[in-house]
Design brief:
Distance between the termini: 106 Å
CATH class of the largest domain: Alpha Beta
CATH topology of the largest domain: Heat Shock Protein 90
CATH architecture of the largest domain: 2-Layer Sandwich
CATH superfamily of the largest domain: Histidine kinase-like ATPase, C-terminal domain
Number of strands: 22
Number of domains: 4
């Protein structure tokens, strides 16, 4: 066996450049004797890779150092070198001096140096790279599983074209397509969007902010059925193309369930309203007869003694008082029975409570005394006044039933508080610590036992006899109160009466709206107004009102004749004031025809009852303001001025 080549002599290559490359190479390089396998030279990277110092390696073989995790790998390497003279991409596992294993890629070649055959071996450590690749592969597999197994629809589409590049099984299931029918198609070709403009708006939004979260859209399934979805998405780059990664959740059944629940609640409230109105009918008729008696009597007094100015003034004041009482009574009957959407605005809580007591006084037996107590300042809450009115009416009629025709007392109080106690019936307040207000409705009736208290808010539970009620009143009250962020407590005992305490959050500030003072009444400057009403008295009333305010007025009792007064070149009027219900043409017909010819001409409508015509529907036909009858000078003055100034009062 030959002596090992002197390492110093071997390292001194004829060209120093190669020696420098050998020394600084990031790959491990070793030179060994072909015949003996002894290492002749190694670079620093080789030392670092295997954890040995240079002097521990030179003169030793890879076998004696135990470098090969599998000795068979060396045999295969040497066989390749003998037969081919070189090898590439030879994977093997090396063992370090500390026992650690490293996966390496080897490239070797046989060279002759100083008459001896040597092996130059270049070793690249792939351990971290392979670990990273395995981690990435596992991550990709994990995300692929999540992508495919998600119950939501996930898709990648081109931003500009909407072409589907990738999608999961959830997408196929939710939209009802097979994979072959979706691949390469655009959402427009598939007609997925119920309104294609929604996608255009979505793309514009994404270009501005880059992301959306749970935006609701209307879409279509493959069979044409409508669906409601929530979409979250963001912009990504996919194969060099700007794309939208979207996650879609089908909420069609959820929205349908919500609508059904809302409809059911509304039906329950209607049934309860009908029940309450039936109770009120006799009392309202009685109260109206009292009002008419006062009007007729004081009118006759005036006619009997027209020369006594002071007496006439006093009589007219009493007539006006009775008329206002009748107006308020009609207003509350309509508010109580009207079918309209919930509208929560800042209100003075005292107003709907007082208005409800007007109806209760008309309907309850005279044997029941009504007491009320309110703060001197406005009590502002955010609420729907009609529903607050309904709560007081329901609790009042419930109290009257508990008194059962006996002499008794109904007490209604409004009391601002800072914190409520836990309700005895199991319903607790929300927003503890927030300033709140309590509407207390107490009676001296028969009271309730504990078993009844536990069930009083259940729909259709009632202690009334057959034909006396549906048992929906208190369940409706409970739903309204909690929808307003409040709570309801009940305190009762057999033979000691009951007290219902409705707690609502208070709001700082003043209630919305409010009436202007008479001395602030707006006046005209000669503007031209057309008044249309089939009642001569209403036309004359409006004419006198508006003339006194400084307007020029033309009146018509026939809407057909009124519309003929318009000319083609320019509108002869600055504003149109029309009644809602008229023969030949309705007020809606008038509004349509006027605004078709003159879109900017304001149309105001007067009505005592609009039926199914909501404010939203009236706005669409050109009506900018609805004035409720009976007319008042202040209300008419404000409505006309707002109309002329372009201030629309319909929401």
């Amino acid at each position: 066996m030959r002596d090992p080549i002197n390492s110093e002599k071997f390292s001194g290559c004829p060209d120093d450049r190669y020696a420098k490359a050998f020394a600084v190479s990031p790959d491990a390089i070793a030179v060994s004797d072909m015949e003996t396998g002894c290492y002749l030279d190694v670079n620093t990277s080789f030392e670092r890779l295997l954890g040995y110092k240079r002097e521990e390696i030179i003169g030793h073989t890879s076998i004696t150092l135990g470098i090969w995790a599998d000795p068979n790998d060396r045999s295969r390497l040497m066989e390749g070198l003998r037969t081919q003279g070189s090898v590439e991409n030879f994977l093997a596992v090396a063992r370090r001096s500390d026992g650690g294993l490293r996966t390496c890629n080897l490239a070797g070649s046989v060279v002759e140096t100083e008459g001896r055959l040597c092996v130059v071996l270049v070793v690249r450590d792939l351990t971290e790279q392979l670990a990273t690749e395995r981690a990435l592969t596992k991550t990709a597999e994990r995300y692929a599983k999540l992508f495919q197994s998600s119950p939501d629809a996930i898709a990648v589409t081109e931003m500009e074209t909407g072409r589907l590049l990738e999608f999961n099984e959830g997408f196929q299931r939710i939209f009802g397509y097979e994979r072959a029918m979706l691949s390469g198609k655009t959402t427009a070709e598939l007609r997925l969007w119920a309104d294609p403009r929604d996608r255009e708006a979505l793309v514009e939004t994404l270009k501005e902010i880059g992301v959306i979260r749970e935006a609701e859209f209307a879409m279509r399934r493959g069979d044409g059925r409508a669906m409601t979805i929530l979409m979250s998405g963001e912009i990504i780059e996919f194969n060099g193309v700007m794309c939208l990664l979207s996650v879609v959740r089908d909420v069609t059944e959820q929205r349908q369930g919500e609508r059904r629940e809302a409809e059911l609640k509304e039906q329950l409230q209607r049934v309860q309203k009908l029940e309450a109105l039936g109770t009120l009918a006799g009392g309202v008729a009685h109260d109206f007869n009292n009002i008419l008696t006062a009007i007729l009597a004081y009118t006759e007094f005036t006619l009997m003694d027209p020369g006594d100015a002071e007496s006439v003034q006093e009589n007219l004041r009493e007539v006006r008082k009775a008329a206002l009482r009748a107006r308020d009574l009609v207003k509350q009957i309509l508010a109580f029975s009207r079918h309209q959407k919930l509208e929560r605005v800042p209100i003075d809580l005292r107003v709907p409570v007082r208005e409800a007591l007007v109806l209760l006084r008309s309907s309850l037996p005279s044997t029941i005394e009504i007491e009320d107590s309110y703060p001197s300042e406005p009590v502002v809450v955010v609420a729907d006044p009609g529903q607050i009115h309904q709560v007081v009416m329901n609790l009042g009629t419930n109290a009257a039933h508990a008194i059962k025709g006996n002499p008794g007392r109904l007490s209604v109080r409004i009391e601002p508080v800072r914190r409520t106690e836990v309700a005895s019936a199991g319903y607790s307040g929300r927003g503890e610590g927030q300033q709140r207000v309590v509407i207390s409705v107490a009676d001296t009736g028969c009271g309730m036992d504990e078993d009844t208290l536990k069930r009083i808010f259940e729909p259709f539970f009632t202690t009334k006899g057959h034909g006396e009620g549906t048992g929906l009143g208190l369940s409706v009250v409970h739903g309204i109160v909690h929808a307003h962020g409040g709570s309801i407590e009940v305190h009762s005992a057999l033979g000691k009466g009951s007290e219902f305490r409705v707690t609502l959050p208070l709001r700082d500030g003043m209630p919305a709206g409010g009436e202007a003072r008479v001395d602030d009444m707006p006046r005209g400057t000669g503007e031209r107004i057309l008044v249309i009403d089939d009642e001569d008295s209403i036309c004359e009333l409006a004419r006198r009102f508006l003339l006194r305010l400084g307007y020029r007025v033309s009146t018509y009792t026939n809407p057909v004749d009124a519309l003929e007064s318009f000319v083609a070149d320019a509108p002869p009027f600055d504003l149109v004031l029309t009644d809602f219900t008229m023969p030949h043409l309705t007020g809606v017909d008038v509004a349509r025809r006027v605004t078709e010819r003159y879109p900017n001409l304001p149309v105001l409508m007067m009505s005592g009852y609009t039926g199914a015509w909501t404010q939203d529907r009236l706005k669409k036909v050109g009506v900018v303001h609805l004035i409720n009858k009976p007319l008042t000078l202040m209300g008419l003055a404000e409505a006309v001025r707002d109309g002329l100034l372009g201030r629309h009062r319909l929401p």
